[in-house]
Amino acid sequence: MASIRTYSLIYVALLLLATGKFVFFHFPDIFTYEMAIIGTMILAAIKVSLIAGYFQHLKDEPRSITYMMLTAAFMVVLLTLAAGYSIQ
């Protein structure tokens, strides 16, 4: 079980990562739209891993649970891509 200090640091990191999205999209002279989208996706992946690892306690689970969750996340990405392809 993580301490309150760890949870507080994760919370601050999540706030800073959320601020990154604002920075990407509100400074178009620095970041292009494509760079903002890619940066937002990277920040979202980092935020998801922090939330799943610490707040949902997956980092303390056996590796088989972690691999199952990664497989499920990969399948969601595949289904999203397939849905996007079928809409076009």
From TrEMBL:
Primary site of residence: membrane
Places the protein is found: Cell membrane
InterPro entries to which the protein is assigned, alphabetical: Cyt_c_oxidase_su4_prok
Protein name: Cytochrome C oxidase subunit IV
Gene Ontology terms: cellular component: plasma membrane
Membrane-topology annotation of the record: Multi-pass membrane protein
Domain of life: Archaea
Keywords, ordered alphabetically: Cell membrane, Membrane, Transmembrane, Transmembrane helix
Segments passing through the bilayer: 7-27, 33-55, 67-87
